[in-house]
Amino acid sequence: MQPTTDQRQYRPDSISWLSAELRDEVRFVDDPEVKGRIYQWLRDVTDLPGGDVLDIVDHNLSDVREKPGEAEGMGEFAMRRLDGDGTENFPDSCQGCEHYGTRCPVFVDPVERRQREQLQAEHADSDTSTKRRAYRRYAEDVGCHQITAALSDHVDQYEQLQKRGLDLLEESDTAIGFTDETDEGARVEAEAAQEGR
User: Fold this and answer.
1) C-alpha–C-alpha distance, residues 151 and 110, integer Å
2) Which residues contact 13 (CB under 8 A, 6 or more apart)?
3) What is d(CA 64, CA 68) in angstroms, rounded to the nearest whole number?
4) Which of 6, 35, 47, 155 stands 20 to 30 A from 126 (CA)?
5) pLDDT (tens digit, 0 to 9) for every residue of the chain, 197 residues total?
6) What H or E segment, with its residue span, contains residue 26?
7) Does the pTM exceed 0.85?
């Protein structure tokens, strides 16, 4: 049985759950250093590419296509050969790809864009790891290492943020005196007292 969206979203190891917990607890933390690190963590969460796996992959692909030094959105690589050997129409990060200098199916072929959107629709209720596996298979089929890199970066960013968040949650629980579930009554009393200030 697959977990529901709510169950997946609010597991103790999810960014959403950690954000909610730390937002609730930060107001009870008196230590300015711990409080500052919690607020920094919450800012870091908002800086992550939002949305689902398709949004993250599309964000990364947009960054790949953008020409460096151009005004944002003003200069893009054609991702297909316009003249010569075609390499000037591709970013250096695409070197080594079988399509480099010829025609990138991920960017130029509208069928491939629809395929990515179809993957998103098919896996709308799947967990993130299932979606990542589906996109990895797609990237292998089309021969795009940029999608694979985006997925790996996504995993790395979230794992690092998750670890920091769990460490901060443990530290904030200790700072405010909540160290296990038996302290839930004390937490409710502290929240009520805080609201009464």
Assistant:
1) 21
2) 162, 166
3) 9
4) 47
5) 344 444 334 444 578 888 899 999 999 999 999 999 999 999 988 877 666 677 788 888 888 999 887 655 568 999 999 988 999 999 999 999 999 999 999 988 889 888 888 887 888 788 777 888 898 999 999 999 999 988 888 888 888 888 999 999 999 888 887 655 545 555 555 555 555 55
6) none
7) no
